[in-house]
Design goal:
Elements lengths: L2 H4 L9 H8 L5 H14 L7 H26 L1 H7 L14 H20 L1 H18 L11 H23 L5 H20 L5 H7 L4 H5 L1 H25 L3 H23 L1 H27 L4
C-alpha cells in the first residue's frame, strides 16, 4: 500500500471512540493507582481536597499516560502497519497527522493542568512527558533498549505518579522516606515492565529492539526480572522496620512471600506465564505499595 494512501496529508477528524482507543484507557490504571498510593503516603486528610485529587488522577491517567500512548503509536505507526494493522493509526481510523496532533495536544493540556497544581507537580509532569517522548521518538527511542525502556516506564508509571499524589496533598516536597520508597518501587517496576517483552521476543529480534529477553535470553531475563522485583521489596521491608513501621513491613513481607511462591512458575515458561504472573504476582506487588504507603502516612 502506498504510504500517501495510508497517511494522507489531510483527513477528517477521527471519531471520539477512535481517539479513546488510541489513548488506551486500560493502561491508565497503574499510574492512577500509584497516584492514589502517593495520596495515602502523604498522611494528609482528603477532606476539602477532592477536586485536587480528581485533577491529579486526570493528570496521571488520561492525560500523561494517555499522551504517552499516542506518542508511542505515532512513532510506531510504520511497524504497526505490518504487525498490528488494526490499531487506530495504521487502520486509518486516526488518519493523516491526527495521531501527532493528539499527542501534542495531550502534552500541552497535561502541562497546563500540572501548572495549575503547583510547580512541583509541573516539574514531575514535565519530566514524565519528556521521558514519554524520548521513549518512543528518535533519536533517543529508549524503548529499543531492554535496560532504559523498562526503567523509564517504571519511573513514570510508579515513581512520578506516586510523587505527584503526595505533592498534590502536601503542597510541598514529600519526606525523604517517601522519596526513598517510591524510588525503590520504581526500580522494582523494571522487572514488571520486562514481563511485557516475553510475548514478542521474535518480533523484537526481527525489528532490532534489544529487549532483555532478546539480549540475555528468556530464562536469564525472567530471573533478572524476578530478582529485581524481590530485592527492591526486601530493601523496602528493611527500611520500614528501621523506621518502626513494623506492621506495614510485615504486610509487605507477606505479599513478597506470595510473589516468591509464584515466581518459579513464571521462570519455567515466561512467554506463556507472564500474563498470568501479571494478574497474580504483580497484583501482590502493587498491594505492597499501598501497605508501605499506609505506614508512611501514619495509618499503621
Amino acid at each position: 500500500m502506498d504510504r500517501s494512501t495510508l497517511f494522507p496529508r489531510t483527513s477528517p477528524p477521527p471519531a471520539a471512540r477512535d481517539i479513546l482507543a488510541l489513548l488506551k484507557p486500560i493502561t491508565w490504571f497503574p499510574p492512577m493507582w500509584a497516584f492514589a498510593v502517593g495520596v495515602v503516603s502523604s498522611g494528609a486528610a482528603i477532606d476539602g481536597r477532592w477536586l485536587l485529587v480528581a485533577c491529579g488522577v486526570l493528570l496521571a491517567g488520561p492525560l500523561v499516560c494517555g499522551t504517552s500512548q499516542a506518542v508511542n503509536d505515532w512513532f510506531d505507526r510504520h511497524v504497526d502497519s505490518i504487525n498490528e494493522p488494526d490499531r487506530p493509526i495504521p487502520s486509518g481510523r486516526v488518519a493523516g497527522r491526527w495521531g501527532l496532533f493528539i499527542a501534542l495536544a495531550g502534552t500541552l493540556l497535561s502541562l497546563l493542568l500540572a501548572l495549575a497544581l503547583g510547580p512541583l507537580v509541573l516539574g514531575a509532569a514535565t519530566i514524565g512527558l519528556a521521558l514519554a517522548w524520548a521513549y518512543s521518538a528518535p533519536p533517543f527511542r529508549l524503548k529499543s533498549s531492554g535496560w532504559w525502556g523498562p526503567a523509564v516506564v517504571g519511573l513514570t508509571y510508579e515513581g512520578l505518579s506516586w510523587f505527584t499524589g503526595a505533592t498534590v496533598m502536601l503542597g510541598a516536597m514529600p519526606s525523604w522516606q517517601v522519596l526513598a520508597i517510591l524510588l525503590l518501587y520504581s526500580l522494582g517496576a523494571h522487572g514488571i515492565m520486562t514481563l511485557n517483552d516475553f510475548k514478542a521476543v521474535e518480533g523484537d529480534r526481527a525489528t532490532g529492539l534489544r529487549s532483555l529477553p532478546v539480549t540475555l535470553g528468556v530464562r536469564n531475563a525472567s530471573l533478572l526480572a524476578c530478582s529485581t522485583m524481590a530485592a527492591t521489596q526486601a530493601i523496602v521491608i528493611a527500611l520500614l522496620i528501621g523506621w518502626g513501621m513494623v506492621l506495614s513491613a510485615g504486610i509487605v513481607a507477606a505479599l513478597l512471600v506470595g510473589q516468591l511462591i509464584l515466581m518459579p512458575r513464571l521462570v519455567r515458561d515466561p512467554a506463556r506465564n507472564a500474563p498470568w504472573y501479571g494478574a497474580t504476582g504483580v497484583t501482590l506487588y502493587v498491594l505492597g505499595m499501598l501497605a508501605a504507603a499506609l505506614g508512611l502516612g501514619g495509618y499503621f
